[in-house]
Structure formats: C-alpha cells, structure tokens
Amino acid sequence: MIAVPGGFGDSDSYKKLFQHNGQRVIDFINNGGRYLGICMGAYWAGSHYFSLLNDVDAVQYLKRPGTDTRRPHAKNMPITWRGEPMKMFWYDGCALVGDDTKFETVATYSNGDAMAIFQNRLGLIGCHPESQPFWYESYSWMKAHYHDGVHHKLLLNFTNELMQR
Predict the structure, then answer these.
(1) What mean pLDDT is predicted for residues 150-156?
(2) 8 Å CB contact between 163 and 121
(3) In terms of DSSP bridges, do strands 122-125 and 114-119 run parallel, antiparallel, or are they unpaired?
C-alpha cells in the first residue's frame, strides 16, 4: 500500500516529491497495489496529479454547489459516514465527484458530495480521520471537538477494507 496523508501540499510539493518516481506509484497501483489518500493524498489521486481515478475527480469541496463552507480554514465539518452523522476535522479537503456508479461511497458531506470512497484499489478521504488532539488544540474554535480516537477506528476499518479489495 502507498499511503499519502494530508498535509501542507500542493502542485509544487507534488512535483518535488514525485518528479522522479511518480510513474512508479502509478505502475504500483496498475499492478495491483493499493493507494490510500487522505485530503492532499486524495487530491493527488485526481486528474491534475497521478490521474488514478476513473470517471471521478477530486475537487475543492468549498467550490461545490450547496457546500456549507466557502473558506479553507480548519473546521469540524458535518459528514455522514456509513449512515452515521458526525463531524470530522477538515482543512480545504476535496469532494470526490463524477460517475457515482464507478465508485463506492463511504461518507458524504452535507451537500451529498462524496467525502470518502473506494474505487477499485483506491481508498480516498477528503477529511482527516487521522487527526490528533493537538490539531484541535491549535485552533480556539476546535478545542472542544476532538473525537477521542473514534475517527482513528473508522480509518483503521477503512484501511482494512481497502487491503481486502
């Protein structure tokens, strides 16, 4: 499995990290490997980077119709994960949009856009289930909203399911 987490990333850091080995990542996936992308890692599976997705793309959620935010700063975003409403750490994460017959939706944003999906051997998540307590403590408006490890269990289950595909 190749796991690409969230973080401070954009096209400049993508080029720096993958200009010499990006094709190896693509070949690994095409030869049966798994790809777990969280936030930035989900964006990087999209058409502007690795282009691993089939008839779906990773786009900025804040620019989508019906979004509940227009600002990219950290927030506890309302989502639905496998039918369970909850809030999850978000920082300019992506929505996964396209032909929804070509992927399995695991979680959605409040506007109905996919937030977490499986497509073949790809597992992509727009929010941050890997978030740590200090992420919440870093923002005054987030301090009281840490998930106490519940999201880590969701991520573990998601990863295990991806490995079984």
Answers:
(1) 98
(2) no
(3) antiparallel
Residue 80 class from Cβ within 10 Å (0-12 exposed, 13-18 middle, 19+ buried)? middle
Does pTM top 0.90 for this prediction?
yes
> β-pairing, 2-4 with 104-109?
unpaired
Q: What is the CATH number of the domain that holds 80?
A: 3.40.50.880
Supply the DSSP symbol for 82: T
With H, G, I as helix, E, B as strand and everything else as coil, classify residue 150. Answer: helix
Structural domain including 38 reads 2-164
Model confidence over 101-149: pLDDT tens digits?
Answer: 999 999 999 999 999 999 999 999 999 999 999 999 999 999 999 999 9
Helix, strand and coil percent figures for the chain, each rounded to 5 = 30, 30, 40
CA dihedral 114, 132, 153, 4 (to 10 degrees): 60
